[in-house]
Amino acid sequence: MTKGIILSGGWGTRLRPLTCTIPKTLIPVMNKPVIERQILLLKSAGITEIILAVSVMGDILKNYFKDGEKLGVKIRYTDERKPLGTAGAIKLAEDFLKDDNFFMLNGDVILNFDFKEMIRAHEKLNGLGLVASKIVDDPSRYGVLMVDKNSNKIIEFLEKNEYRSQEGKKIAMPINAGVYLLESDIFNYIKPLKKISIEREVFPKLAEEEKLFHYPIPGIWKDIGKPEGLLEGNIQLMIDILKNSKEQKKNLINKSVDIEGKASIHPPVTLGKNVVIRKNCKIGPNVIIGDNVYLGANAEIKETLIYNDAYISEDVKLEKVIVSDNCLLHKGAQLIGNNQNLVILASYVEVSENVCLIAPSNHSLTVCHHEVVKNSIN
């Protein structure tokens, strides 16, 4: 029986301040932690034994998932006391994984495809490893796969900054999507208790030995390493879920949502449990709102994520914003992002009445958890 291991040990530095209070892999994506969505994808493929490789804020992850019973899977944990790299992290779980092949996932990617198809492809190709791949227009930020199109064999595995396109032009290429299906023989390539990168030190060897293949994944894929990627990934997943819905829905609105009077909903929009929307609100497009969120009259929200238990007062305007849990925005506050540069509020932030926060043109505007913003920034 195929098993799974998900790496969840990173600091999430580029997502700060969102990751100051929770691990990166518990960041909500369409109102579920990104790693929970991965667990459910594994479960849908019949995989019920999963290991979470944790280190940073490991206790928070353990407390959230416990033994996995609520999700209908069995979850174990490894505890990485010092950085061991991506290969060293799975070596800690060798005793759990050595009896069969297994999925290995980076816990910070959004995806939505059938893992059973990847299992079938692995059985057919009969390699030691199968790497999920995705073609992207700008591969410079990712590990690039040089492949044989006829056999799906990976000829060369190039990590970040190792790939150079001809004449410096951006060329669409298959990149490493952070999902692997590996045979247990992989452990023969990893020394115990050593810091080893599977991407830099193991996969290139397998490629040389012609034992590494790739599987082009369908559907969406997004790395949530940066806030703008997190926002884009949420929106892409929402659109993908709606597109594949049998009911042909335009929005995903929980039955418990309370809408007073007329509210303008511009698809696509996701509204979680017990959301309260007062009169004359304008919501959407591209808005995801979590559970127990209050929106006061005349609020205008688009291109925005709002997590659970936030209170948005009347006449508030939000565009290209991430609002974490338990934030309070007073009357007339305006938060406006700028292209890829967002306004980001960490947990328990309070924004005073009529304060205006506008992101500059060269970086996102962030507010750390528990801060009270009394003055405008623009």
> What's the story with the biggest beta sheet?
11 strands, parallel
* Structure class: alpha/beta
Work out the helix count: 7
CATH topology of the largest domain, anyone? Spore Coat Polysaccharide Biosynthesis Protein SpsA, Chain A
Overall strand count: 31
State the end-to-end CA separation.
Answer: 56 Å
Helix % is: 10-25%
Radius of gyration: 22 Å
The general outline is elongated
List the main descriptive attributes of the protein structure presented here.
378 residues; alpha/beta; Spore Coat Polysaccharide Biosynthesis Protein SpsA, Chain A; eleven-stranded parallel beta sheet; seven-stranded mixed beta sheet; elongated
List the helices and strands and how they pair.
Elements lengths: L2 E6 L19 E2 L2 E2 H11 L4 E6 L3 H8 L8 E6 L5 H7 L2 H4 L4 E5 L2 E3 L3 H11 L3 E8 L7 E4 L6 E5 L14 E10 L15 H11 L3 E5 L4 E3 L3 H17 L8 E2 L4 E2 L4 E2 L3 E3 L4 E2 L4 E2 L3 E3 L4 E2 L4 E7 L4 E2 L4 E7 L4 E2 L4 E3 L6 E3 L4 E2 L4 E3 L6 E3 L4 E2 L5
Parallel strand pairs: 1-4, 1-6, 4-5, 8-12, 14-17, 15-18, 16-19, 17-20, 18-21, 19-22, 20-22, 21-23, 22-24, 23-25, 24-26, 24-27, 25-28, 26-29, 27-30, 28-31
Antiparallel strand pairs: 2-3, 6-11, 7-13, 8-11, 9-10
Explain what this protein looks like in three dimensions.
With 378 residues, the chain is of the alpha/beta class. It has two domains: 3-225, Alpha-Beta Complex (Spore Coat Polysaccharide Biosynthesis Protein SpsA, Chain A), CATH 3.90.550; 249-373, Hexapeptide repeat proteins (UDP N-Acetylglucosamine Acyltransferase, domain 1). Helix content is 18%, strand content 31%. It has seven helices and 31 strands. The chain has helices spanning 34-44, 58-65, 85-91, 94-97, 115-125, 198-208, 227-243; strands spanning 3-8, 28-29, 32-33, 49-54, 74-79, 102-106, 109-111, 129-136, 144-147, 154-158, 173-182, 212-216, 221-223, 252-253, 258-259, 264-265, 269-271, 276-277, 282-283, 287-289, 294-295, 300-306, 311-312, 317-323, 328-329, 334-336, 343-345, 350-351, 356-358, 365-367, 372-373. The strands form six sheets. Strands 14, 16, 17, 19, 20, 22, 24, 26, 27, 29 and 30 form an eleven-stranded parallel β-sheet that branches. It has a seven-stranded mixed β-sheet with strand order 5-4-1-6-11-8-12, with helices on both faces. A hairpin with a 6-residue loop joins strand 9 and strand 10 (154-158).
